[in-house]
Write a structure and sequence with these properties.
Protein name: 4Fe-4S dicluster domain-containing protein
GO molecular function, one term: 4 iron, 4 sulfur cluster binding
Pfam families: Fer4 (PF00037)
CATH topology of the largest domain: Alpha-Beta Plaits
Strand order of the largest sheet: 10-5-11
Number of helices: 6
Keywords: 4Fe-4S, Iron, Iron-sulfur, Metal-binding
CATH class of the largest domain: Alpha Beta
InterPro entries: 4Fe4S_Fe-S-bd, 4Fe4S_Fe_S_CS, Fe-S_Ferredoxin
CATH architecture of the largest domain: 2-Layer Sandwich
CATH superfamily of the largest domain: ACT domain
Structural class: alpha+beta
Distance between the termini: 43 Å
Bound molecules: iron/sulfur cluster
Radius of gyration: 21 Å
Largest sheet: 3 strands, antiparallel
Strand content: 15-25%
Number of strands: 11
Length: 251
């Protein structure tokens, strides 16, 4: 994003809306630091900021590689060209009763790396993907982050993107349930190497008796979960393809 220096009157209205403090007054004009800006679009969105002079505009090349990744991962109003999914993750990862992606005997993992104010560098993201790849993880095909990898088996991000930074990105995959403990152990180990924060979404089906099989594993590793659910009243059913391929999906 860029501020037209001719139009800007230095009112400062836009400054607090930037989640990474990329906008600052220099003299009597606001300027945007190109390296810090994550192209989240907050400052230009008219329903958020109303620049009295219409001085903020998109820089030419904002949608070109490699800077385009900042936009696709940081601005929820954009849609990824390949996955066709708006935002940084896959569709409905948290509504398994609709998507049926995670069946009994499996776990779904979504690691949300970075947050506004901190962001996440590709170096941090790659630390996670390379570490998890050592366990033989198969990353979710329909996730925009997977499409930035030069080597999906090793979790290596393509060289052209390595200098980029985004508000956040989600590492997503499904794994057999018996891999849950080694995965979480690895995530705890990797957490100590990061310069940002992350949250871990764990998607797991209930057993017939109402228990959640993941809870004892979390307790053993000293991880305190916050059980969360979205309820979709008749709005969807697990996709038939998942049911057929995976032999049914109770969620
Ligand atoms: S809101 Fe507009 S005029 Fe005011 S400081 Fe920001 S860019 Fe300049
Ligand atoms: S696009 Fe986002 S990160 Fe860049 S200056 Fe505007 S609010 Fe800040």
């Amino acid at each position: 994003m860029v501020i037209d220096q001719e139009k800007c009157i230095g009112c400062g209205i836009c400054i607090p809306y930037c989640p990474v403090q990329a906008i600052a007054l220099v003299g009597k004009k606001a300027v945007i630091d190109h390296d810090t800006c994550l192209e989240c679009g907050n400052c230009i969105r008219s329903k958020v900021v109303r620049c009295p002079r219409g001085a903020i505009y998109e820089e030419p090349g904002i949608y070109e590689t490699p800077r385009a990744v900042r936009r696709f991962f940081s601005d929820p109003m954009t849609t990824h060209k390949v996955t066709k999914v708006p935002g940084r993750g896959t569709e409905e990862v948290k509504t398994n009763d609709v998507t049926g992606r995670v069946c009994r005997g499996e776990v779904g993992i979504a690691l949300e790396i970075g947050r506004p104010c901190l962001g996440a560098t590709m170096a941090d993201i790659e630390r996670i993907t390379m570490g998890l790849a050592e366990l033989g993880i198969k990353f979710e095909e329909c996730n925009p982050l997977t499409h930035l990898m030069a080597d999906r088996e090793k979790g290596i991000i393509a060289a052209e993107y390595k200098g980029e930074k985004v508000v956040s990105a989600i590492v997503e995959f499904t794994a057999p349930f018996d891999q849950l403990k080694p995965i979480l152990t690895k995530v705890k180990e990797l957490a100590a190497q990061l310069d940002t924060v992350f949250s871990l979404d764990l998607i797991c089906c209930y057993e017939d008796d109402g228990t959640l099989p993941a809870l004892p594993v979390l307790a053993e590793l000293g991880i305190q979960p916050r059980v969360n659910a979205k309820v979709n009243l008749g709005l969807g059913r697990p996709y038939k393809i998942y049911r057929e391929q995976k032999g049914g999906c109770a969620s």
